[in-house]
Amino acid sequence: MASKYGFQQPGEQSKFGFGTVGRSGGYIVTSSSKKAAAPAAPATPAGLSPSARALWEKALAHYKPGGGFGAGVEAGLERGRVKSTASGMQNLVSAGLAGTTMAAGLGKKYEEEVAAPTRARVESARAEAISGLQAGMAGAEQRGYETAADRAFQMQMQQRDIAA
């Protein structure tokens, strides 16, 4: 019998059809005599589809060393080195210093002032691109798992409503 305030007492049948009512630490606890239904399998597998994963991997492969990103930069640096060395040598000849050791430093000067900073910028851009792709892939995979879990929960709730 319910109390004078309308609360159910321990041992009574739940008015919501959940089984019997009990008390635990001041909270009302119900126990069900019905066996819980197994969770429904999601309609689609969680995470990324194989085709989406293949696209992410293809993009990552492009940015990894040897993957094509920055290949044109190295060719451009080599052309620039040849032009710069030839121009520097021509300036040394016109100044009458062609036979000195100054000609030996032309390639090193180009490497220090132009090539090394350019390679560093390419590597920085490569790292940023890889980091961005990996973060995007992780986010897409997480959204896939969450979506699959949401679908499974919704299906479970629908099955519960149908059974009730």
Task: Give structural attributes.
mainly alpha; rod-shaped; 2 domains; 2 strands; 6% strand; two-stranded antiparallel ribbon; 164 residues; 3 helices
* Portion in helices: 55-70%
| C-alpha termini separation | 24 Å
Give the beta-strand count.
2
In terms of quaternary structure, the protein is single chain
Strand-residue proportion: 5-15%
Based on Cα principal axes, name the global outline.
Answer: rod-shaped
What is Rg? Answer: 35 Å
Work out the count of structural domains: 2
Question: What do you see in this structure?
Answer:
The protein has about 160 residues and is mainly alpha-helical. The protein has 2 domains: about 35 residues, no CATH class; about 120 residues. Helices cover about 60% and strands about 5% of the residues. It contains 3 helices and 2 strands. Strands 1-2 form a two-stranded antiparallel sheet. The two termini are about 25 Å apart.
Give a quick rundown of the structure.
By secondary structure, this protein is mostly helical.
Set out the fold topology:
Layout (H helix, E strand, L loop, with lengths): L19 E5 L2 E5 L18 H14 L7 H24 L11 H58 L1
